[in-house]
Design brief:
Layout (H helix, E strand, L loop, with lengths): L28 E11 L17 E10 L4 E8 L3 H14 L7 E5 L3 H10 L1 E2 L7 H7 L7 E2 L5 E10 L2 E11 L2 H10 L9 H13 L14 H17 L8 E4 L4 E3 L3 H4 L9 H6 L5 H19 L1
Parallel strand pairs: 1-4, 4-7
Antiparallel strand pairs: 1-2, 2-3, 5-6, 7-8, 9-10
Helix pairs in contact: 1-2
Length: about 300
């Protein structure tokens, strides 16, 4: 069995304790966006007063992706609300052990700004500064909320006309232009502010998951199965899919390459997984399972007695 996360399932909340290693370039870059999926009905056909329609309508995949390894670090399926987006960023914060991302790029979804500030900001009263440090930094002049200067946040605004993108505008929301330029220069990915990596993944995801294809009858009819298949596709993409940009050349003439999955590029696996490996991977720790079996044996013996 290929090496995988320590304990828990990669496709469930049990994997929330898995820590994602720092990228090889030493910095985190996040591409964040949301993908629309319709469940049973369109929003205009849903009745807010009807309990049967509460789980119908638009459900969104909130995705945070590392452009370097192409790894889907966080996925949260839910309504497109500030609470769901906050849940996604807090999940990313936990999985990366609170490491500060050098650059966050996202679309122009308004709640992102306040969510990023609340997720990575520190209240003035929580800063553990000595008396000397307070005097050095000017304690009285510090803002009520301190946001790390190491993080830059930029957005991509796309203007469409007749269903086509006619203009793309990059906006810097946090940090400096020099800071963003240096971060893009150090990384092995594209040297511009964009969300193309996560958008490319959304296109691939639509091919893997027929429930998310456009204008088809294979849309989800049950939300529980929709979430389950979404997670299965994410785990398959992280541990089985071998994108061409991730391959490593190990021989010049004739050229030979070693294929890698996003999990291999991120240091979470040493070999590609198969779908059989994913389906057989235990969701719970083996100790818990064996203890449960012993308990069942004792219960049967007590009944016989």
């Amino acid at each position: 069995m290929p090496s995988g996360p320590n304990g828990g399932s990669a496709a469930s909340s049990a994997a929330a304790s898995v820590k994602i290693p720092t990228p090889t370039c030493g910095i985190w870059r996040i591409n964040s966006t949301s993908q629309l999926c319709r469940h049973r009905k369109k929003d205009k056909h849903c009745d807010p007063t009807n309990p049967a329609d509460r789980r119908c309508g638009s459900w969104w995949d909130h995705i945070l992706l590392d452009p370097e390894s192409k790894l889907i670090v966080t996925l949260v399926v839910g309504r497109r609300t500030a609470d769901t987006a906050l849940e996604a960023f807090l999940d990313f914060y936990t999985r990366t052990d609170g490491q500060l991302p050098a650059l966050i790029t996202a679309d122009e979804y308004a709640p992102y700004f306040s969510i990023i500030v609340s997720a990575y900001g520190v209240l003035k009263g929580d800063l553990e500064l000595t008396a000397a440090e307070k005097g050095e930094f000017g304690w009285e002049q510090l803002p009520p909320l301190y946001f790390p200067v190491e993080i830059a946040y930029a957005t991509v605004q796309k203007e469409r006309a007749r269903g086509r993108v006619v203009r793309v505008e990059q906006r810097l929301r946090l940090g400096t232009a020099e800071q963003v330029a240096e971060t893009l220069r150090q990384g092995p990915t594209a040297g511009t502010i964009n969300t193309s990596y996560v958008e490319r993944w959304i296109g691939t995801n639509r091919h893997f998951n027929a429930r998310k294809a456009r204008k088809v009858y294979t849309f989800s009819k049950d939300l529980q199965f929709h979430v389950a298949v979404t997670w299965l596709v994410v785990v398959f993409d992280n541990f089985c899919w071998k994108p061409q940009p991730l391959r490593e050349q190990f021989q010049a003439e004739p050229p030979r390459y070693h294929d890698r999955t996003p999990a291999m590029a991120a240091g979470l696996a040493t070999a590609p997984w198969s779908l059989t490996d994913i389906l057989r991977y235990p969701i719970y720790r083996r100790e818990t399972y064996s203890t449960h079996r012993k308990w069942r044996r004792r219960k049967k013996k007590s009944r016989k007695a």
